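Meet today's protein:

…
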Amino acid sequence: MKNFLAVDTSGNHLAVVAVKDGKRAAVYIENCAMKHAVSVMGAVDEVLKKLQSTLQDYDFFAAVVGAGSFTGIRIGISTVKGFCLATGKPALPITSFDVAAYNAVDRKEKVLCLVDALHDFYYACGYEDGKAVCPPAYLSKDEVLKLAASGYALRALAPLPLGEETTVEIVDPIVGLENAAKKKAAKNGFGDLTALYVRKSSAEINLGK
């Protein structure tokens, strides 16, 4: 199970990485907000061509299931579910926190991986020695800063509005996506692609009123 294709449409960026027979190809678009649906298949086609491959050549397909943009998450999940259905290959769910945490697989430290939830709130998950040590949470800016003061290093896939005095390590989405797919596959983390919603989407909140 070493050949795979992974997709991340959970944020403003679009990331697609494929590994086949030890060779790697990737496409990264830094600002793809609201355009994931029209861009993702072109990015997939590009990596397939770079590796002279077809979908059938891959052992499994991975998608980032959240936290992040509700619309983007659904697009990535639907895309990868289609690949799995067409090929009969298994799916591998990956979180955006995994992508940030596994960007440097050999580093052992307490890390709080963050995704901007807007309005001074953040989706967060803590890792220690490469293992998740707490469930994903919806935290205020003050709560994040308290955890940083307690010894957690902050890590994210994109810049965060936490202030100039707060250090946030911005990591490579492609490296993290590849590492997370390898690590989760090695632990046999295959399963259904179910969106990770740390809190309700705006549509669900409005329906509940």
About this structure: Confidence is low (pLDDT under 50) at residues 202-209.
